[in-house]
Design brief:
Layout (H helix, E strand, L loop, with lengths): L2 H31 L1 H4 L1 H32 L4 H33 L7
Helix pairs in contact: 1-3, 3-4
Length: 115
Amino acid sequence: MTFEDWLPALGMQAAMSAPNLIACAVGVTLCLSWKRRIGVGAVYAVAAFSLQILSMLLGLAGQAWMYKMMASGMSASTAGLGQSVVGGVHILLSLTATGLLIAAVLAKRPAPPQT
């Protein structure tokens, strides 16, 4: 199989990631436009959405790399090891982004009443 045979599968992966990418891009846009109103939470949220976008693009790039390497004759075990490394980085980016989103929500919460 050639790399061109894998392009439809890669296009399908990109199509499946598109709604998430659009949602994160809208999140970045809204946080930047409402930065004054949201405050420090906007900075955390922009960082989180940006990391999510980076994570999804890294996943797509890893998938394209795997298809390209398998088309060039790389063994499945070596390609799987490379995909595992990309997957590990993807998970770390996603966890960091989730933590930043939680921090953004907590940063905007009002202080508890003093008793």
